[in-house]
Amino acid sequence: ETRKILDDICVAKAVECPPPRTTARLLDKLVGEFLEVTCINPTFICDHPQIMSPLAKWHRSKEGLTERFELFVMKKEICNAYTELNDPMRQRQLFEEQAKAKAAGDDEAMFIDENFCTALEYGLPPTAGWGMGIDRVAMFLTDSNNIKEVLLFPAMKPEDKKENVAPTETLESTAVGTSV
């Protein structure tokens, strides 16, 4: 079983992966630990596994893969792009699998988007999308390792677990870079 093999590799290589240790999460952690960190020069990682790309169209000629790429520069993801999956039945099935993973504790998994599934039933022509927002550019420029570190809205930032932080320090740290 693929999940067991990936789990064994993570244990052997001391790669942390908090529960749930799904195939997708284990593979993502391994890619982050051993592949993404080698992408110093602009590098495209192409044709991601289907299990890691629930919104991407399945590859036309490579079974088990999707029509997706990510651009990395200096070990950081700058762009994520893929051909949109426009098969409503397949998309619903993938959303259902994601919802099960979410219920099992996978905070990165998605809920079922009923409005999106309904829209797909009306028909979506061949479409592609890519994400390279200002947040990714800011992440690159500030040498941040996680996109949550540069998000503008405090509700979306990771909680500060420091117990000895004065309230004024917290207010100042969340206000940095937010003036207009």
Topology of this structure?
Blueprint: H1 2-12, H2 23-34, E1 43-46, E2 68-73, E3 76-83, H3 88-103, H4 114-122, E4 128-131, H5 134-141, H6 167-175
Antiparallel strand pairs: 1-2, 2-3, 3-4
Helix pairs in contact: 1-2, 3-4
Protein name: Lysyl-tRNA synthetase-like protein
GO cellular component, one term: nucleus
InterPro entries: Aa-tRNA-synt_II (IPR004364), aa-tRNA-synth_II (IPR006195), aa-tRNA-synth_II/BPL/LPL (IPR045864)
What this model shows, in words?
The protein is α+β, with helices and mostly antiparallel strands and 180 residues long. It has two domains: 38 residues; 109 residues, Bira Bifunctional Protein, Domain 2 (BirA Bifunctional Protein, domain 2, 2-Layer Sandwich). 36% of the residues lie in helices and 12% in strands. It has six helices and four strands, in the order ααβββααβαα. It has a four-stranded antiparallel β-sheet with strand order 1-2-3-4. A hairpin with a 2-residue loop joins strand 2 and strand 3. Helix 1 packs across helix 2 and helix 3 packs antiparallel against helix 4. The radius of gyration is 19 Å and the shape is globular. The protein starts with a helix and ends in a 5-residue tail after the last helix. One of its GO terms (biological process) is lysyl-tRNA aminoacylation. Pfam families: tRNA-synt_2. It comes from Callithrix jacchus (White-tufted-ear marmoset).
